[in-house]
TrEMBL record:
Pfam families: PP2C_2. It comes from Rudanella paleaurantiibacter. Residues 322-352 are annotated as: Disordered. This is SpoIIE family protein phosphatase. CDD domains: PP2Cc (cd00143).
């Protein structure tokens, strides 16, 4: 009895762009129970964003065509390979000297119950499970770092004028697999009923988490869910290209599912990137804090009003309450009076 992986992808130019610099991957990989998913967003503002995204897509697909070892290591190597291919093209073509892209790439294996991911930039990977949406990747952008640190609300981040300023990209400079300041990567469990959502910022700049959950919870094929998400993003303004990839894992009743494999932290590739990513995230947080200083705290007018009202109530109660007669002082008995101390004069003259 075979498991079922339902996958689909779609990209849309949006409402305000004349060209589409996004692309994606959504197809089987190696076996009938594993898939390769990716969303790749060409960086706007520079010539060649679409070319960089297309070259990354081609390079990753080519590198991942044949399994050669550890899946996560292969995925990391594939993104580095794509990065250096873009760098080479930049050097050969002056017109494309600043082209680059951002991306999120996933290998999902239903038989192993695992997903593996590599991420650079402000595209995103979510996992939808039992009505809950979990954001797995971190945004490598000035605003995204602040949002992930709960220093900006979702709405504030979506409306921020600097939300598209990224801190990492694929293609602007040569990289190696073990560079600590480049790739965010990891692996997690992948269970029956899970839905993986990969998307460009053209979706998440337009739709809130609650809106994503509402669509992902609808009982419909993933291709129709993608159409609904893109339509909603366009109706909200469609300010950028919109790309969505979905992968749903469902198993026929009675199918045997292998238990999730534990993550082996002893593997050098995975362990090194975790250490490096943590260090870089701290530096990115510092950079974001310097570039986007926190707003001054709001004044606590509510507490001040309560204090004033309390004082006024106390004064009013004192004025309206009936006055009590002041008790007379009791006479002091002579035998209980304290003996006064003699008055002492301080001689301020100095002794010669």
């Amino acid at each position: 009895m075979t498991t079922l992986l339902e996958i689909a992808g779609q990209t849309d130019v949006g409402q305000n762009r004349h060209d589409n610099q996004d692309t994606y991957l959504a197809g089987p990989l190696w076996t009938d129970h594993s898939v390769l998913l990716a969303v790749i967003d060409g960086v706007g503002g520079y010539a060649g964003g679409a070319e960089a995204a297309a070259l990354a897509r081609e390079s990753i697909g080519q590198y991942m065509a044949t399994p050669t070892g550890d899946t996560l290591t292969m995925l990391r190597e594939a993104v580095v390979f794509a990065n250096n291919q873009i760098v080479q093209q930049r050097q050969q073509n002056p017109a494309l000297a600043r082209m680059c892209c951002v991306l999120t790439v996933v290998v999902a294996d239903a038989q192993l119950g695992r997903l593996y991911y590599v991420h650079v930039g402000d595209t995103r990977l979510y996992r939808f499970r039992q009505g809950q949406l979990e954001k797995i990747t971190h945004d490598h952008s000035l605003v995204g770092v602040r949002e992930d640190a709960n220093q900006l609300t979702e709405r504030e981040a979506m409306r921020h004028p600097r939300r598209n300023e990224i801190l990492r990209d694929v293609g602007s400079m040569p990289h190696r697999v073990d560079d600590p300041d480049f790739l965010e990567s990891g692996e997690s469990d992948f269970e029956p009923g899970d839905v993986l959502l990969l998307c460009s910022d053209g979706l998440t700049d337009m739709l809130t988490r609650a809106q994503l959950v509402e669509v992902l919870g609808r009982p419909m094929p993933v291709a129709e869910q993608i159409e609904a998400l893109i339509q909603a993003a366009n109706e909200a303004g469609g300010h950028d290209n919109i790309t969505v990839v979905l992968g749903r894992y469902s198993a026929p009743e009675g199918a045997e599912i292998a238990p999730a494999l534990p993550i082996d932290d002893s593997r050098s590739a995975t362990a090194s990137i975790r250490v490096g990513t943590q260090g870089l995230m701290q530096s990115e947080a510092t950079l974001a804090a310097e570039a986007l200083p926190e707003q001054p705290p709001k004044r606590r007018w509510g507490a001040l009003v309560l204090v004033v009202l309390g004082v006024l109530a106390g004064v009013l109660w004192w004025q309206l309450s009936p006055s009590e007669p002041t008790p007379r002082p009791q006479p002091v008995r002579a035998d209980s009076a304290r003996t006064p101390k003699p008055f002492t004069t301080i001689d301020s003259t100095r002794t010669p």
